[in-house]
Design a protein that fits this description.
The protein is α/β, with parallel strands linked by helices. It is about 40% helix and about 20% strand. It binds guanosine-5'-monophosphate (5GP) and manganese (II) ion (MN).
Length: about 350
């Protein structure tokens, strides 16, 4: 059985908003990951099944390893079709904001969504949601937004309506946000939910393979290069730093999502509990931070890179050079020395 973490009052409000809405839009965060796309498609297939008019809009492209999911072809990339995305948002009666807590996370879509007259429902698991939605379902203790979507559908009494495509998407989001159930995954109800999703006919082993065994050769070589040539270990801080310049990514013909998972790799090393990955992007340095145990990499992201996220997985954006970003990171390490030395893997 699922414990009831969302109140009946909130569920009634969702029911009411769905009843009175004709045009629904789902938006999720920039550089969408498995949970962003999984939660969006999980909800999309559920709503479509009931005859709703629904569009998913993403701020930019998402990785190829998610494209096997049913419905991905229908997802609108606002970077490619900005006018159409703006129109759909303006015409929507109801907007679901999935897997993000602050408007900044949807980049160029923020002003349209915040300014739209549509009712807005946030379903998310990042700490400190800001106040731009009519209804906020925010549960940082839950490891994925996809799990929250599953719960919402169940609390609405509609588990029976959930189809296989929805179940596959939800499972994908739950799996990717927990590193295939290797972190943030000690809640017993996760495994109850997986059992329920299996009843919908999903093939969890196939999903694992579709997501994690579909890398290109060049991506794999870039990973090897990053670890062998671009990793610096700060032993006294139990910390690792990896970085990739634009030129290096180009050399390996890097595509969207090809560096996904890199930030986690140095955590495989004994005693390393904190890793920062800096990737040179078009107009900024994208920073990914990962930690183990109770080291708050979201605090580090907030302090140094105007970012945020979860305790063990966070990110930020830095507008400057790679060298400057590295200097900021190295200057901040001593402040965290005690925490870094005392945190357990
Ligand atoms: P990733 O490193 O995979 O891009 O992001 C890991 C997590 O960090 C995301 O799930 C999100 O919670 C958070 N995150 C990533 N980038 C940013 C950012 O630029 N700003 C904020 N506030 N959070 C971010
Ligand atoms: Mn998530």
């Amino acid at each position: 059985m699922l414990s009831k973490i969302i109140s009946s009052h909130t569920i009634s409000k969702i029911e009411h908003l769905l009843d009175e809405s004709e045009k629904i839009v789902i938006v999720t965060h920039v550089s969408p990951d498995g949970d962003a796309i999984g939660s969006s498609l999980g909800l999309y297939h559920y709503l479509i099944e009931q005859g709703n008019d629904v569009n998913i809009i993403v701020p930019n492209a998402f990785p190829d390893f998610l494209k096997w999911m049913k419905g991905t072809k229908e997802i609108l990339d606002a970077e490619k079709y900005p006018d159409y995305a703006q129109r759909l948002i303006e015409e929507a009666d109801l907007i679901f904001c999935l897997d993000f807590n602050i408007p900044k996370r949807i980049h160029q879509l923020a002003s349209y969504v915040v300014g739209s007259n549509a009712k807005k429902i946030m379903i998310d698991h990042h700490p400190d949601p800001s106040d731009f939605c009519n209804l906020v379902i925010s549960h940082p203790e839950i490891s994925s937004t996809s799990e929250l979507v599953f719960r919402v559908i169940c609390y609405l009494g509609d588990f029976e309506i959930m189809n296989k495509a929805s179940a596959e998407a939800i499972y994908t989001g739950m799996m990717t946000d927990t590193g295939a159930f290797t972190y943030n995954s000690n809640n017993a109800e996760i495994y109850y939910i997986i059992g329920e999703l299996l009843k919908k006919g999903i093939n969890k082993d196939q999903i694992y393979s579709d997501v994690y065994h579909s890398y290109s050769e060049s991506r794999f070589r870039m990973m090897g290069y990053t670890l062998s040539e671009k990793m610096k270990i700060y032993s006294e801080y139990n910390t690792a730093l990896i970085n990739l310049t634009k030129e290096e990514q180009k050399r390996f013909n890097a595509k969207k999502g090809d560096t996904e998972g890199f930030a986690n790799l140095p955590l495989n090393i004994q005693n390393i509990i904190f890793c920062v990955f800096m990737r040179e992007d078009n107009d900024m340095i994208k920073i990914s931070l990962r930690s183990q145990g109770d080291f708050p990499c979201n605090k580090f992201a907030e302090q140094c890179f105007n970012g945020g996220g979860h305790l063990n997985a966070s990110g930020g954006e830095f507008f400057g050079t790679l060298e400057e970003a590295i200097t900021i990171f190295e200057n901040a390490l001593p402040e965290y020395k005690i925490l870094l030395r005392n945190s357990k893997k």
